[in-house]
Amino acid sequence: xxxxxxxxxxxxxxxxxxxxxxxxxxxxxxxxxxxxxxxxxxxxxxxxxxxxxxxxxxxxxxxxxxxxxxxxxxxxxxxxxxxxxxxxxxxxxxxxxxxxxxxxxxxxxxxxxxxxxxxxxxxxxxxxxxxxxxxxxxxxxxx
Length: 143
Prior knowledge:
The longest helix has 17 residues, at 11-27. The chain is 12% helix and 50% strand. The protein has one domain (34-142): Jelly Rolls (Sandwich), CATH 2.60.120.380. It has a four-stranded antiparallel β-sheet with strand order 1-8-3-6, with no helix packed on it. Strands 2-7-4-5 form a four-stranded antiparallel β-sheet, with no helix packed on it. The protein has 143 residues and is mostly beta strands. The protein has one helix at residues 11-27, and strands spanning 38-46, 56-61, 65-75, 82-91, 94-105, 109-115, 118-125, 134-142.
């Protein structure tokens, strides 16, 4: 038997599978390069945990790719220059949390990950360190 005549049976499925995968990526718009992401800023006021409430910003991701949430400032400066940030999905006009970081530091990425096209939300919260009302500014980058 010649080597060129030996062909694994599974290989006949590889080409059609790859063709379907490429078509799916093209039809879904593929993945957006993070350097092409939009930057949206929002701000709000956090009150100490006991007073409740968390500012939420809703946004629409026009494609698949990566998101990031960063705190750009707080006033007054918080303990260790940090607040809590969260990421979630917009469901029925409410923010349904998916992930959060109670120690997002000013000037650093607080959360990041994969995102699909759709309605999403970002929010800020008191991780239990605020003693007075604190204003903040955040940036959300997404496709």
